[in-house]
């Protein structure tokens, strides 16, 4: 019995030892697994930390990443720094009131003896959009703006994005008003009246107490730029700018980044050849004469950035007595495009005897004024003649009547930029050519009968060499209306010749027009050519005839 008990006891002890060993082994294995887990976690954490630092560095170096440092001494004599880097920042500190007055973009509230600062101007480290904007100047209000139409902003970019396209006004440094042309009086105001700096941009003005800085937002585009948008900014292939052309070389790893970096440098031109990004502007050292047939060898594609080139900015002239020039043409002859070119070349707005709201929205500010009374805009569009008694001279733009009448059909149905489908054009073209060709001739005859100076410009020549023809028109203006910086303005204009009211070209086969109508239109063309020749016009009319020209 005793031996049996002794054996059982020994077995029990052995079992306990084995069980303890097994538990210890299991514990050690689990501990080893946890160590591996901890090591793996540390490796993963280190990877993400490295990635975050790298992204932060890239973000900090991004051309749109703004950062500012403010250093001052607090009431206890310690130095305090506020750093704003495009991200939201809340800082509690003892900054002195001087810092508050110096940096009014930081809102302050006194809480329990401390100055609490809330900075929330840019909620993301990089801009999500880039906007194409034109600074129109300083303007007064013609009526009060409802409070519901004003929004408090923390940056100009916030106002641009809110208004998207159209007019944006900023008053008192921080209040944004969209569709501002409803409230702004279009008359000359001294730029000194807009004397309040914009938030985060002390080099720009955001209106004054009773006046507003007016901007026209052409478009806001998502960043990175879509490929189809980038293609619309392409000006063509040019020989690479030489070192004396004033271009700066910057680091950029993509075309998109090149456009952004050149824009951040306020340069209107970006040249990118997949290796080098160059930023600059067109001058006498680099211009349209350097265009290349293709982008091979020593040529590179050139793109227009979204920044405004202030060399060809436009303003209202002071009211007063001045000679008025009529910009006359048959409808559909490129009058709107010619106005755009003249505004950029002269530096002042052109007017109209009409009031076209679509043209006002696209930037022709004098469309809002009665040109029979106003003298802010000394070049005035006119398609008719019974209001011409106030005008002193005429610039007459003549276009092939076939093309002008076709363009006018599209304008009547689809505005200044839309196109009409082929079947619609064909159904009305014969009647329009029959009647329109007679009005086209009468229009030219009325200009010739006026006992006033006139200059004839052919639309086809304007398309072929716009800078040459625009310079000719500017030289025809009274001496006081010719800008002293015309050479610089023409260089600037060469970067943006298209304007904002370009219609997509429609190829139309005029062989579908009846022989009878072609004979009538061609006879009208011959008649006008003869009249121009009689008064001594050299090379009167290009070859506009369709019946025998094969055009």
Brief description of this entry?
By secondary structure, the chain is of the alpha+beta class. Helix content is 35%, strand content 22%.
Mean pLDDT over the full residue set: 76
Structural classification: alpha+beta
Show unreliable segments.
Answer: 1-17, 51-125
Strand order of the largest sheet: 7-9-8-13-6-10
Account of the 3D structure:
By secondary structure, this protein is an alpha+beta fold. 35% of the residues lie in helices and 22% in strands. The chain is built from 13 helices and 23 strands. It has helices spanning 2-61, 97-102, 156-163, 227-232, 255-264, 335-346, 357-361, 401-414, 422-449, 459-464, 466-476, 486-493, 515-534, and strands at 68-73, 79-84, 89-93, 107-111, 114-119, 129-141, 150-152, 166-171, 175-178, 184-185, 197-198, 201-205, 211-222, 234-239, 248-250, 269-272, 277-280, 299-304, 325-329, 351-352, 379-382, 393-398, 454-458. The strands form six sheets. It has a six-stranded antiparallel sheet, with helices on one face. The chain has a five-stranded antiparallel sheet with strand order 14-18-16-17-15. The radius of gyration is 35 Å and the shape is globular.
